[in-house]
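Reviewer comment 2.1 asked that we show a complete input and output for one of the modelled complexes. We chose the adenosine monophosphate case, as it is the one discussed in the main text.
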Amino acid sequence: MHSTASDGELAPAALMAAVARAGVKVAALTDHDSVAALAEARAVAAELGVQLVNGVEISCRWDAHDIHVVGLGVDPESSALQAQLAAQMERRRQRAEQMAQRLAKLGFPDLLAAASDGAPQGIPARPHFARALVAAGVCRQEKDAFAKYLAQGKPAYVKTEWPGVDEAVAWIKASGGVAVLAHPHRYKMTRTRLDRLIRLFAEAGGQALEVVSSNQDAASVRQLAGFCTQYQLHASQGSDYHGPSMRWVQVGRMPALPAGCQPVWPLLGIQELSS
Ligand code: AMP
Ligand code: MN
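Response of the prediction step:
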């Protein structure tokens, strides 16, 4: 799940309240390149009876793809992790300026301030630019802003020198976490390429694949379960909840892992997710 510490819509406390309302007992907060929300979320989660898993979702680059590696159970106080995440935010700050320059060239000169408003540390991610493009009346919906301007290959997309997948795995493990390859089917790779990515991830010490994520068809789930068996990886579930305006993603409403998958949560000391 994501909060306002990255590109989510809900502040950490409101997010935990939504989790509790949905009857969810265990939730991982995995903001993009940030652990800033975890302290507030933890304080509220304890009161609400929600077991919070400290998480982070690290932006990586591999073979011309932007890849996300989730760390579950990381120590948010780790100074090494905090230093790496500070470097990630600096990359984000520079990328935001370059995106704003590209959008200015496309005829939208005043978007940086609007996109930065409410963004974590004043550093807008692409969804913040998408919201600003909608608010300015340039696009009708945020997904149109991605399709026309912000997605890879579109005119306002800026290639970023994110760390390698192996580096992110190393940071996560050094801070006590379990590394999970996020939503492997969203990278739109051929099977051969996905196989290479998963092999590299496993060789780097990655421990789990996100086998079930939102908007995923049954064939993809089966394929990912097969990769788990092939590379002896555990299986995770992620809703990737960003807030109520994503109507197709509901808190805690996800299909179960396929039979035969080894769930990732015992590695975090959690035996059962259901109450
Ligand atoms: P960023 O961290 O700035 O690269 O933004 C990544 C986030 O943008 C992802 O986590 C998604 O929530 C969102 N996103 C990426 N691609 C799309 C897309 N094509 N349509 C809508 N949202 C997207
Ligand atoms: Mn992601």
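The two ends are 20 Å apart (CA to CA). We note this here for comparison with the apo prediction described in Section 3.2.
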